[in-house]
Specification:
The structure is a homodimer. Chain A is α/β, with parallel strands linked by helices. Chain A folds into two domains: 5-54, RecR Domain 1 (Helicase, Ruva Protein, domain 3), CATH 1.10.8; 57-197, Dna Topoisomerase Vi A Subunit, Chain: A, domain 2. Chain A contains eight helices and seven strands. In chain A, the strands form two sheets. Chain A has a five-stranded mixed beta sheet with strand order 4-3-5-6-7. In chain A, strands 1-2 form a two-stranded antiparallel ribbon. In chain A, β3, α5 (89-97) and β4 form a beta-alpha-beta unit. In chain A, α1 (5-14) packs across α2 (22-35). The N and C termini of chain A lie far apart (64 Å). In chain A, 38% of the residues are buried. Chains A and B meet through α1, α2, α3, β2 and α5 of A and α1, α2, α3, β2 and α5 of B.
Chain lengths: 198, 198
């Protein structure tokens, strides 16, 4: 209805966010219109655009960063011969919070999913193979879901070579769960109890 | 952690929205950074500021609008001698969706709430009293909550006068519920079965 066209217009944008339906989007839009100050809204809008403009993928590991090389790849304090392979940047953050791992990462940008038409070629896998010189261990930390398992098996197969330990993050990861929502204790155990595959 | 400072910064803004905690805010921020195009984000940011700048309260009824007088008050097709009193603009929208009411509105901007320190002086009540000339019926449509009841009783007392019918929206409104979330059928019944108080 025309009385709230401007709420409708703003809601449409909020509806693009994950898990946000029409009702929630309208609630957000009313909050912007009624409760927030113009200064708050302008700062919010500016940050949206700044974030989007600054963000890129680390040219080494593929995680989101606002620099060419992410702070983890660039750090001199990390163990350089260990790479943990994860689905996305949120997984890196979850692992980092455990303070249990000090190696490098490789961010795939997704999982192999035949049903969604996502094949290995769509993921950041080529660049992983090119990083393996001098690496002693690759820890595959994909979730215990069908796509996570498929991806792990595929990776194990293609990166297998003499002198390289390929392990899977293991103990404690609940079935069907996304890594980013797992509590820190469980993640710590999962890292400690990783299972060496060869 | 420094690796995701830009996500943290953007999340802080999302956390100001109603019902959005840290996890949800981060999810939104990652979605902005990873999934949306720069064009989408820029359009979103622009709409936020435009909405906030354009929005004001109708000088007659107090509802949110982008004009001096809202389209309902300005319409020549509405019944001009009937005013429905509601808490906020979202309630107007919910009532309008029923197509069951064709009078005017008055938006209080809240409910009387002694516990939160909200007194009648904090609400848009003075201007209601000034609108009563020529009005035949005032329908009080506040929710069945302690604050809604308090507000309704207060309004009934102060606007009572000869020749003015004061009614309460009634039948069907579930106790404790916010009007904006009630289904349209229930709202229609509630409007039809309103109870005349004097």
């Amino acid at each position: 209805m025309s009385e709230i066209k401007f709420i409708d217009k703003l809601s449409k944008h909020f509806e693009k966010l994950p898990g946000v339906g029409k009702k929630t989007a309208e609630r957000y839009a009313y909050h912007i219109a009624e409760k927030m100050t113009i200064d708050e809204v302008e700062a919010f809008a500016k940050e949206l655009v700044t974030t989007k403009k600054d963000v890129k993928h680390c040219k080494v590991c593929g995680m989101l960063t606002d620099q060419e090389t992410c702070p983890i790849c660039a750090s001199s304090y990390r163990t350089k011969d260990q790479i943990m392979v994860v689905r996305d940047t949120k997984d890196v953050i979850a692992i980092e919070k455990t303070n249990q791992y000090n190696g490098l990462y490789h961010v795939l940008g997704g999982l192999i999913s035949p049903l969604d038409g996502i094949s290995p070629d769509d993921l950041n896998i080529d660049s992983l193979e090119k990083r393996l010189d001098g690496i002693k261990e690759v820890i595959i930390a994909t979730s215990f879901t069908p796509n996570g398992e498929t991806t792990a098996l595929y990776l194990e197969k293609i990166i297998k070579k003499d002198g390289l330990v390929v392990s899977r993050i293991g103990y404690g990861l609940p079935a069907g769960g996304d890594i980013e929502y797992v509590d820190e204790l469980t993640l710590r155990r999962a890292i400690d109890a990783r299972k060496i595959n060869n």
